[in-house]
Amino acid sequence: MFILGDDAQRTRGRDAQTSNIAAGKAVADAVRTTLGPRGMDKMLVDSTGTVVITNDGVTILEEMDIEHPAAQMLVEVAQTQEDEVGDGTTTASVLAGQLLATAEDLLADDVHPTTIVEGYAAARDIGHAAIDDCRLDEDVDDDLLRRVAATSMTGKGTGDANAEALADLVVEAVRQVADDDGAHRDDVRVHTQPGASSGATELVRGIVTDTEPVREDMPRDVADASVLALDTSLDTRETNADVEYDITSVEQLNAALDAEERELKRYAETVRDAGVDVLVSQKSIDDRVAAFLAEAGVLAFESVKQTDVSAIAAATGATVVGDVTDVESDDLGYAESVRVERYGEDDLAFVEGGADARTVTLLVRGSTAHVLDELERAIGDALDVVAVALDDGGVVPGAGCAEIAVADRIRDEAARIDGRAQLAAEAFADALDVLPRTLAENTGMDPIDALVDLRAENETGRAGVVTDGERGEIADPIAHGVIDPAAVKHEALAAATDAATMIVRIDDVIAAE
What we know:
Blueprint lengths: L7 E5 H20 L9 E4 L5 E4 L2 H7 L5 H17 L3 H20 L4 H21 L8 H12 L9 H15 E2 L2 E2 L4 E7 L7 E3 L1 E4 L11 E10 L19 H24 L4 E4 L5 H9 L3 E3 L4 H11 L3 E2 L11 E11 L2 E7 L7 E7 L2 H24 L2 E3 L3 H13 L7 H12 L1 H10 L3 H14 L3 E5 L2 E5 L7 E3 H19 L3 E5 L1
Parallel strand pairs: 6-15, 9-10, 9-12, 10-11
Antiparallel strand pairs: 1-20, 2-3, 4-5, 7-15, 8-14, 9-13, 13-14, 16-19, 17-18
Helix pairs in contact: 1-3, 1-4, 2-3, 3-4, 3-16, 4-13, 4-16, 5-12, 5-13, 5-16, 6-7, 6-11, 7-11, 8-9, 12-13, 14-15
């Protein structure tokens, strides 16, 4: 009996498992060399010739256009890691790939997939407890947060700006928007602007948007500004009906034009009389209205992106209104300063609120588009991990130290696991070794010797693979300022385990062509 169409392909049993595991391992191998401060970059070129140069795990996997369904699961691991904690995407992907490799050896020894899943789950739970025990007994102060941010950015493309200098800006930005409810990461915006070195990156206490005044004769710097946000155009109104006007004389034409002129002038007078200093419109502003506004000394911007209008409204306390004739004083926002500055051929508008601003922007500079893109990714990751560390309140030693501690704990407690699941738990611990081993390899050290030394040092103290200049060494990561949020480790452990066990459990692949 045939239940599948002629164009369907079916792969079953060990062949299906081998194919899926091979695909997952290939994805992990693609990003493995990017791990750590001495990781390498990847150049990705799409069908249109667009080039992306990065060592960010999730960016690499998303740009690779992966089609194999099992391989896509590892892409989802990186995406989940990015969405949840903002960093550790390469760690999660590499760990998932190594878990698949150890699972392949277990399958070859006739360990059932369900047993592997059971052992992996038990090891994962032990690992979570071990991560919590690795937490540092230190208050999460600004100095600790700066080390977390610098660790996240080390090895990524930061141009001529060192990670420590950028870390100061990142921590300052997150602290600015944090309150008793936590760090509001979405209130920190990143705006990129080419034309200068990355060392010119600065923190703006407010909003930066790439827009210019409607007219050149408008003011370019307004202090103590009342701000009006609009989502409607300032133009002559159009009727919804299909109406024709029969004008038979010059007098009638002039009367119609005068009426239109009065309507447009009334818009500008309404804005002026409401005490508006700065007008930000999501839609267009008629040239005549703009001229009237310029005469009244109002700085106006048109066709501003909806997200920017909303952000400006939120930052200044303004209400986005849809009818300029209904503007009330409560609809207006306040900004300490609104200014327009020229960067090369571009104008940027700065809407600043001073020390009390609840929305801030990191104005990221870069000499080239490729440098700027990678710097934006690095700063985005740093902002995420600082916010996570501040909210979660826990950090652990980096540089592979936490992974060694977790692997040792799993090996110590694996004897309590019944049956063949114990073998899977021990294989899980072996898989964790891939992370410090890869760090050592990417730093130029002998990975086997480094792993042996790491295990020995962690028996009596605390050690990881740290970099000193161009070479690596086994040393205390805390003394070298290499620190990661505990939440990043937890998420990588959980996401990698979930993906690996899901792939291992598949024994039948049915594909339609």
